[in-house]
Specification:
Blueprint (H helix, E strand, L loop, with lengths): L1 H15 L6 E5 L11 E7 L17 E7 L2 E7 L10 H14 L3 E10 L9 E9 L27 H14 L3 E8 L8 H9 L4 E3 L3 H9 L4 E10 L10 H24 L2
Parallel strand pairs: 1-4, 1-5, 5-9, 6-7, 7-8
Antiparallel strand pairs: 2-3, 3-4, 5-8, 6-9
Helix pairs in contact: 1-2, 2-5, 3-6
Subunit structure: Homotrimer.
Organism: Pedobacter westerhofensis
Pfam family, one: PNP_UDP_1
């Protein structure tokens, strides 16, 4: 891992004049609008970066964006990776390790998710304050490199409380419907059955999706504070469940995305 990581980081540094980002950003499905707020320094296609996995989804750009946002140096993944694409969790989270090696001090993650909480409606936002991992393994499975993090990292507070509080305050000031809750990570890519939605609610989930948790686990393994936010693009309420298409999910994400961008950009400005 260390040799592969060093090869990738050296490649990026040579092409960026040793650009040192302070903040890493992972942009979820349909949520790439934040990139337009970044004062672009340069970008790299995933396909040109040694050892970097490539997004297989046509609606994910697959670019690593470097620049400034609200005066802070950032590196943003425009297009994330998912377990259902066929990658291992170690491959999916490799970009987070690269970001850490480049110098990030905070990680901001966004995703599109289905609401499990009947008080959280389609188009609302949800700041993640905890998660439940129902993916088949941990990205930390295998031999641990103590230079990257401890064998048994603590996960009692995976999401940064102070950043959560600031984000909710920004949302209130801006009149944005924004909740906080528990995100459940599943394998995907299929959506859930009525019985599965019911189960996820029973075990304490407020939203469900197929990403985020692996990246958060690896970030916390390396001691990076994390903030994560979901755009709720559909409603998994068993009693009134109706079919939903990818087109509908993307359309809802596009409508709600400016609200998420406003919260993230203002939150980054306060760091």
């Amino acid at each position: 891992m260390f040799q592969i990581l060093r090869e990738t980081v050296d490649y990026i540094k040579k092409r960026s004049n040793d650009f040192q980002p302070e903040i890493g950003i992972v942009l979820g499905t349909g949520l790439g609008g934040l990139v337009n707020e970044i004062e672009l320094e340069f970008s790299l296609m995933y396909s040109n970066i040694p050892n970097f996995p490539i997004s297989t989804l046509e609606f994910h750009s697959g670019k690593l964006i470097f620049g400034k946002l609200k005066g802070k140096r950032v590196v943003a993944m425009q297009g994330r990776l998912h377990y259902y694409e066929g990658y291992s969790l170690q491959q999916i989270t490799f970009p987070i390790r690269v970001m850490k090696a480049l110098g990030i001090q905070y990680l901001f993650v966004s995703n599109a998710a289905g609401s499990l909480n009947s008080d959280f409606k389609k188009g609302d936002l949800m700041v993640i304050n905890d998660h439940i991992n129902l993916q088949p393994e941990s990205p930390l499975r295998g031999i641990n490199d103590p230079d990257l993090g401890p064998r048994f990292p603590d996960m009692s507070e995976p999401y940064h409380k102070e950043l959560i509080g600031k984000a909710l305050a920004i949302a209130a000031e801006e009149g944005i419907r924004c909740h906080q809750g528990v995100y459940v990570a599943v394998t995907g890519p299929n959506l859930e059955t009525k019985a599965e939605y019911k189960y996820l609610r029973i075990i304490g989930g407020d939203a469900v999706g197929t990403s985020t948790v692996p990246e958060v686990i690896v970030a916390r393994h390396m001691g990076i504070p994390v903030f994560a936010i979901s755009v709720l693009t559909d409603e998994g309420f068993p009693e009134v469940l109706s079919p939903v298409s990818l087109e509908e999910i993307l359309a809802t994400a596009r409508i709600a995305e400016p609200k998420m961008t406003k919260i993230l950009s203002q939150l980054i400005a306060q760091l």
